[in-house]
Queue: 4 jobs
Job 1
Amino acid sequence: MRIGTLGAGSMAEALTTRWAGQGHEVMIGARHPEKGAALAGRLGPGATSGGFAEAAAFGEAVLVAVHAEAAVEVLEAAGAREGALRGRTLIDCTNAIVPGRFTLGAPMAELIAEATPGAHVVKAFNLCHVDVWRLTPPVFDGVPLGVPLCGDDPGALAAVRTLIADLGCVPLPGGPLERAPLLEATAALAIGLWLGEGADARSALPPLSHAGIEDGGQPPVPGSR
Ligand SMILES: NC(=O)c1ccc[n+]([C@@H]2O[C@H](COP(=O)([O-])OP(=O)(O)OC[C@H]3O[C@@H](n4cnc5c(N)ncnc54)[C@H](OP(=O)(O)O)[C@@H]3O)[C@@H](O)[C@H]2O)c1
């Protein structure tokens, strides 16, 4: 798959390092050419770099990997309003978490979708710290990391499921893009527990065996009875 990035920071590096290693073609899109070129150099001979518009034009899948406050501006620089990302898989890993309060500053998937007419936005990779995406593979207690993804377009979801599997992770269907705010809120809650309280956010959820699923039926909604 041809993958472009908007951003040349930690998330772009962690994810594209793994994807390039799996044989995907990567173009790093950066505002400072030397940073993009340096990252592309670290990725290996097949990787290239350019500006935001070039990376958007290159990618069948394009990863938005800039600070949340810069995302819409960067998409505009990439030509998104003019349709540069029409028909592309646009991967949104951003979190607009208010430092110290661990609340959400903006609904990122919604803002990104509004800014990119015709793109197939998929929210994913926003729940874990960048160091997790550097693990080869991310496996904890013998269980590969599950990566929830939310999106509407079947082809885009299939592409992101492939990219998740290429990290050694397991795609978890999170539903349509209208559910992406739940992923953003989950990140805020977990980061608040981890950073704010030093608590293990993972311990908040029981295993599937204790999810309250009755024989062949839907699980009851916790608290509904
Ligand atoms: N780090 C994590 O653990 C983590 C985990 C999950 C999700 N995320 C999300 O992933 C996204 C990227 O995070 P990161 O950790 O990769 O950040 P980062 O290492 O600080 O990199 C941010 C990138 O955004 C670019 N950028 C920042 N402001 C810009 C602007 N106004 N215009 C153009 N480019 C701008 C930076 O360019 P320069 O290098 O030129 O400054 C850099 O390439 C964020 O939305 C974050 O919430 C991060």
Job 2
Amino acid sequence: MNAPVSPADTLRAALSGLLDGLPPRQAAQAVDRLIANYRGRTPTDAPVLRDRSDVVAYAAYRMPATFEALCAALDAFADAVPGWTPASHVDVGGGTGAATWAVSATWEGPRPVTVLDWAEPALALGREIAAANPALKAAEWHRSRIGSALTIESTDLVTVSYVLGELTEAGRAAVVDAAAAAAQAVVIVEPGTPDGYARVIEARDRLIGAGFRIAAPCPHSAACPIVPGEDWCHFSARVSRSSLHRQVKGGSLAYEDEKFSYVAAARFPVAPAASRVVRKPQIRKGQVLLDLCGPDESLHRDTVTKRHGPLYRAARDAHWGDAWPPPDTDQDQTRA
Ligand SMILES: C[S@@+](CC[C@H](N)C(=O)[O-])C[C@H]1O[C@@H](n2cnc3c(N)ncnc32)[C@H](O)[C@@H]1O
């Protein structure tokens, strides 16, 4: 039997192993309970992930999606900081450790890794799954509550993934300020909803106020051109559905798309995208319509036609969330 090679494959195998021996009905019930507990109960004053079946349900049901969203955000960040590799990583509100897997998939490890969370069962399961990933074998898993007393040890990278939505306004400010004080780079990911985007923008403003520069997704560190309430910046990551997903959600689709919002910022110089594709490109006969966020703090649509030669071919391959133009195309041809 061939050993799984990529961290994504290793993670999938580790997660499916968790469900071995758990009767499918019990797994589905644990997911239903988890969803019900989250619904309408945030911010929470005690951990939602209280026991092993809660965290198994979370890991099997949500972790593949948070992992893929993080990988997409970290890829965009890595493109904007060529040559930089985090020498250490702290994942705050890390739960079962999706971000640690995504960081190790983006930049080969090992490196010192610390996961902080207030839910002991999540940390315990994260530690168990991480045993399958050589880059995470030495990771430390510590109980820590996000609040005004939160301190994070000095580190290269802090990730805060799908956590802000569980916090009060004061908690959100505390975690972003502690991350900014501790790290050279901060990556924050939230669900790709209007509320998730609003929390990302709030964090983005705090990071800029603390002296950070925005590396991704924005082409600049000035104000976001989106008018609050009219739209929200978000992206999409494809996630293979596990058998548990299919069982709980029904249907036979082999994948689903996880919508997420994010910001990646650094204290050191960054090279953000010239522009960012902020909607799914529309391919028409002989032309591609690209909705872009540009360096001049504006949103605009570019029409790339066959006349643009290599750029047109690049536009046909462009995806929602990509930098535009691709870094290796002729910059003179970027505007229609
Ligand atoms: C939706 S989960 C996200 C887990 C992980 N970061 C991911 O992306 O899969 C939210 C996590 O934040 C943790 N959390 C929520 N409020 C917290 C607090 N006040 N202090 C510490 N951890 C907290 C929860 O225990 C949970 O593990």
Job 3
Amino acid sequence: MPSTPRLSLDAVSRTFGTLEVLDRVSFDVAPGEFVSLVGPSGAGKSTLFNIIAGLDSPSSGRVLFDGSDARGRRDQTAYMPQKDLLFPWRTIEENAALGLEVQGMRRADARARVREWFPRFGLEGFEKALPFELSGGMRQRAALLRTVVQERSTLLLDEPFGALDSLTRQEMQQWLQEMWAGNEWTALLITHDVREAVMLSDRVVVLGPRPASVREIVEVDLPRPRGVDQLASPAFGELERRILELLHVQG
Ligand SMILES: Nc1ncnc2c1ncn2[C@@H]1O[C@H](COP(=O)(O)OP(=O)(O)OP(=O)(O)O)[C@@H](O)[C@H]1O
Ligand SMILES: [Mg+2]
């Protein structure tokens, strides 16, 4: 890779007591790249995101951002955890401003900042709505807005569309693809949906069962922008099959 990677994982391991969760996980992510992580449930994917986000530390190994050790730094990424729920009693605007307020921004400034983002997230006019008044896809976009508005160049998205029906999910994938392309983000996505991983990613990191290690990294060399018409292409199907095979290999 010619440029310094945005993110480098160098033999990251994590144990909780006697439970080994991550086993020397190593891979790089280039600036502006979209990388997905797939692997069995309980493999250690969310644990890896917690470490990258600086909320947890590796038992051994290193995390580098732009070539520098980032141990314990929480300001390198915007993180949407696996269960990123909106507070039901706060308006969408108040929910979206939460991340900025936690960072120490004044409440009025935080709300003014998030309002600028509403049109791009298809949420214009819903600033004062409560979460129950929104559809599932809109709520998910609001949770993403809360993450993205922190204006960090690197996003960590842990199964952001896991709870959505397949049609809404496809719409959200298209939308995320456009947002990613338009904002020069570096993105890491955890998903159980292999089709989603192929649709969105430049590369897919396939992890084995716990303790998770990198089984293989699959390049997705399909032209962009990608649409649902591509789902039926032989190249797309071949990549899906390859990743599914890797996931199902024993041992
Ligand atoms: N703080 C912790 N203390 C002890 N064990 C933990 C802790 N965090 C995670 N684990 C354990 O680490 C293992 C991996 O959990 P993790 O949440 O990373 O899996 P995952 O790959 O994200 O799974 P899923 O796909 O179901 O979300 C699990 O066995 C879990 O119980
Ligand atoms: Mg998880």
Job 4
Amino acid sequence: MNVFEVMIMDMKYVQTTCPYCGTGCSFNLVVKDGKVVDTAPPYHRSPVNEGKVCPKGTYAHEFVNREDRLTTPLIKKDGKFVEATWEEANALIAEKFKSYTPPDECAVLSSARTSNEDNYALMKFARGALKTRHIDHCARLCHASTVAGLAASFGSGAMTNSIGDIAESKCVFIIGSNTFEQHPLIGRRVMQAKMNGAKLIYADPPFNLYRKAG
Ligand code: SF4
């Protein structure tokens, strides 16, 4: 076996979805010797990001192997955190959860940084295992007003078109959103629409990149 063959064996590309913002870009994680070392464009171009990744997605993998990342559970004993096994941590968490009676005393808050599948699993855990009806998502904080507005205007509190449609729009109206920084690959579609001659109407108090782009 030559050196090249060894390198190929130790390295693999794992297609995944960027969890950094809600755009859902697809890319590969480069895994070498069992460690995530880089990101790379996907073999198949997703219609969401067409093989592109923004700087946030490009470097988001770096936290995986950071030295200051916790890799073992810590349990507080006598005011100090001490390393514990997962079995010990899980047993402690289960014991604490059991102390809440009725179970509705427990509330579960999920994150937009996780995938739909993870959010679904947490919902099942909350309702099925903890038996609480109090399950919510951080998007409640930032999107509750848009959901109500969209439902009243379009009949659905969710996105009414695909991301690709934005690039083909004749007029794009953005209000209260800094999409170019918060969801850069959607911002790219807005700029594509603008380059195709679309009118861009932007309304937001802070100065941002849309205004710079004219
Ligand atoms: S726009 Fe950037 S941060 Fe958001 S999902 Fe795509 S690559 Fe990740």
